[in-house]
Amino acid sequence: MRKKLVSMLLCATMVATMATGCGDTSGDDKKPSSGASSETGGNNNDSSGGGGSSETVSLRLWGAEEDQDYLKQLVSKFESTYSDQKFNIEIGVESESTAKDTVLTDIEAAADVYSYASDQLADLVRAGALAALDDVSEVLTKAGKTLDDVKSANAPDSVEAATLNGKMYGFPTGGANTYFLYYDSSIVSDEDAKTWDSLLAAAAKGKKKVGMTLNSGWYNASFFYGAGFTTGLNEDGTTTMDWNGTSADGNSGVDVVKSMLDITSNSAFMPIADGQISNTIASGDLCAVISGAWDSGKAEEIWGDGYSATKLPTYTLGGKQIQMAPAYGYKFEAVNAYSKNTGWAVLLAEFISNEESQKLHFDLLKQPPTNSNVLASDAIQNDKAIAAAVSQGDFGVIQAVGQKYWDTSKAFGEMVAKGKINAKDDKAIQKALDNLVDGVTAPLS
Asked: On the chain, which terminus has fewer CB atoms closer than 10 Å, C or N?
């Protein structure tokens, strides 16, 4: 699978700055750990080569709320694996979707090991919050593993997504972090599910709705990405966006908005607020909805034998069918550059990402894996939601944007969802797009 990588530009001087702790601007002597020493893995409490020590190694691990029981199982297995070492591993709640904001509030106070989403990579690296695995690879070697082993065990795109300026900044743990189309095949046929036009017609005939979240730049970007538009992340943390112009594919942003408004004005369409998809599926009002693997259980529960999933539909733009291109990402297990037990943190992060752990994550929580062996298993191949998510790898976009993107794109999507832009007024649409781009690309305060 090869995806269009959204530009994540970092200047060469930043790499040198990071080596001295660019996340610390206080002017004192605090610096991130430079990696694991040959004896201790980073400090005198860290004998992560396998021999153990008489002192207890304390680590903090953050993970999503739904992963807490799963992580407890992994920590227990990790402690058993290294039974000659005493540990005190504290597990806390922090979603990978919000990890960046929390970590960057105080990097030194953040957990030793935490999960983050691929679109946060550049900001975390820029702040010096992530230990480069290449710089601590000797820890893996002492434990009988290599970084090359990690890379070869996982899907190439997941490794690429964890890499910036030639260095890898996290162990891949979750793949196909994206959204696709769920539908009830008793109302929507496989053919109906291919285009928005036929999808909405089938919903209207069945007296049901098709739902999608538009008040989120993660979801609404799929219309623009599909039409050849881009977003990108600059070295100073600002975002680039070309949605108010003409794409490389020759499509105009105004026409994309018209297509979106044509969908949202259809009586069979239901806009769903961000975070409310599962509850809306449960209402029974929908025959189709755009969401991710996390809602597979609820969709299957409500639609029963009709439960189906497939790639995103195409939409009509200028008389052509355009394939929606979703934001497509990965999840990684990171090591805090300021960890006081770097070596053990590396081994814990690697343990959470290994083949057995990824299989358990899928079995318990349907988390799409990145490990090649788990991806090839019958359980994955026969899972409708995972198959739909993975099928979008060739045209999904790894979204990298700055902090100004989210609130502005949310407000724009809300306007489209509620029909607050006149679909017949090109000037009004252009103004809305200009305002969107101005807000998204504004300098950071």
From this structure: C
- The rounded distance, in Å, linking the Cα atoms of 175 and 330 is 5
Chain-centre distance for alpha carbon 309: 20
Residue with tokens 């020493």: 37
Q: What is the CA radius of gyration of the chain?
A: 23
Q: DSSP class of residue 240?
A: E
The token pair at 424 is 């017949």
Phi/psi class of residue 312: alpha, beta or left (left: φ > 0; alpha: ψ in -120 to 50)? beta
Predicted local confidence at residue 357, as pLDDT: 98
Tokens of 182: 């769920």
Q: What is the pLDDT of residue 119?
A: 85
Helices and strands of the chain, counted as H and E runs: 19, 18
Amino acid at 346: V
Exposed/middle/buried for residue 45 (C-beta within 10 Å: 0-12, 13-18, 19+)? middle
pLDDT for the residue numbered 37: 35
Q: What are the tokens at 218? A: 């993660």
Sheet strand arrangement including 171-177 = 87-93, 57-63, 113-117, 329-335, 171-177
Query: What is the b/e burial string over 257-279, where b = at least 16 CB atoms within 10 angstroms of the residue's CB?
Result: bbbbbbbbebebbbbbeeeebbe
Burial classification of residue 129, based on how many CB atoms lie within 10 Å of its CB (0-12 exposed, 13-18 middle, 19 or more buried): buried
- Please give the pLDDT value at position 52: 62
